[in-house]
Structures are given as structure tokens and as C-alpha cells.
What does this fold into?
Amino acid sequence: MSDSYADGLIRHGLEDVQPLYRQLLLQLKSQDASAYEEAVVRYREQVEAVVADADDPVAVWVEYGTWLAPILMPGSVKAIDEDGRATDAESPAPLGPLLLHLPDDQKSRALLLAMPSAPSPAQRETAALLCS
It folds into this structure.
């Protein structure tokens, strides 16, 4: 039985990721029109076309976000646990912990990919420090 997107957010304990990814798309559109068009095509084919029938719509969305972030800037996705410890997020990315895309360029801010709906103080502080 497949979850709705809203049910999946509750089950995984995540905030809505769609606004985050809209912001990434707007940033991409201003940086690279060609890459933006590729991102829109991928969205239509791999998110919009399948999410309604997916067993886990949130996983479909997060997979898109983890694909989109390195298009903006090279880097890696990290999962931040409740104690603030970072690990490499394997593909597919885990659902539940804080997910950040850490750019290779250390002068660039991290990109928020998924925020727990009830983040721990360490997760909240990590996001505030690295994404601001």
C-alpha cells in the first residue's frame, strides 16, 4: 500500500521538502538555463510521472533533491543524526535524519535537503551554522 506524500512526511518525521527544492530550482535557473531545463525534464519524468503511484513518494522527492544539489555545486550529501554526527548518505538517501549537501567549495554554504519535523538541538544548530 502506498503512502500519500503527506502520510510519508509524517511516517519519516520530515518537513515538506518541496519548498526546499523549488528554491534550488530557482537558483539553478539563474545560474545555468541548460541545467535548469534538464532538471525540469528529470522532474517531469522521474518525480511527477511516478510519485502518485510510488510506494514512498517522499523517497522519490528526496532522491530528486539529492540528484539536484550537485548540479548546483559539486559536493556530497551527509546525513546528520540526532547527536550531530555526520555520515555519508548512501543512495538512496536515508529518510528521517537531517540531510545536507556539503559543497566541495568550503566557502559555499550547505544546501538543506531534508529537515526532521522535530530536529534535535544538534541538528537544528548544524543546519543553522552550515546553511546560513
About this structure: The mean pLDDT is 94.
